Amino acid sequence: MKSRLLSLIIYLVASVAGAACFLYPFFTPPAPDGARASQQAAIHTPLFFTLVLCLCLIVLLYEIQGRSMDARLIALLGMLIAINAVLRFIEVSIPGPGGFSPIFLLIILTGYVFGGRFGFLMGALTMLVSALITGGVGPWLPGQMFAAGWVGSSATLCRGIARRFNLEGKPWEHLILMAFGAAWGLLYGAILNLWFWPFVAGPTSQSWSPGITFGDTLRHYGLFYLVTSLAWDLCCSLGNVVLIAVLGSPTLRILRRFEQRFFFDYLPLPAGE
Fold first, then answer.
1. Of 126, 130, 203, 239, whose CB neighbour count within 10 A is largest?
2. What's this model's pTM, rounded to 2 decimal places?
3. 172-225, pLDDT tens digit by residue?
4. Position 29 in a domain
5. What is the CATH number of the domain that holds 179?
């Protein structure tokens, strides 16, 4: 019980740290030399991202090696991450339309079957390993890791809904996952924009500066997202829906077979047998 509670606290701290990385620029106070302050924030934020990333990786690796995760699950996690890394390498080598990416299928379905902790590790470490393979290491990587981790961890909410209404193994289960994948296809891109948007110089109606109100921030970002990112992220959203519709059923069967083997509890025999 204590181990599980500590594990949940670790993931919560990691998620809060990731959210702080994205939101840090919006809490910088206005300054008379606004341009100079903006340049300093643009320098400090990637450093802040990198520091928090290192701390969170240490914590997550400690959690993996702890008793809260079975060795068989760690082996399965490594295999699935390797598959996703190869898929991302193919994606980079042969780019699909817009923001389409095949990696979210496994991130969503593993979080759905094995729970939020497994899903978070699947998403975050997929981005880390695939970045090392594809040369995609840069100041955007910590944001990608956190956002993909949140995709996997939040997928467990779909399982709660499916169990609540007895939808597991039924067509509605896939509809829930398809809707979830569609939503995250847009939300993932919207979150990632935040690591650079506060520092982008552009039209006043689409940019951010210290001191503007929360309402103005939402309006400016909404217009920026509509103009620059919506069409790109729609391809990711539609791709998630198609992949879950086509490959969701066989993938779920395979993952559930592993789940049954890993979590099957043998009942004790009666005394004397």
1. 126
2. 0.87
3. 999 999 999 999 999 999 999 998 898 887 888 999 988 889 999 999 999 999
4. no
5. 1.10.1760.20
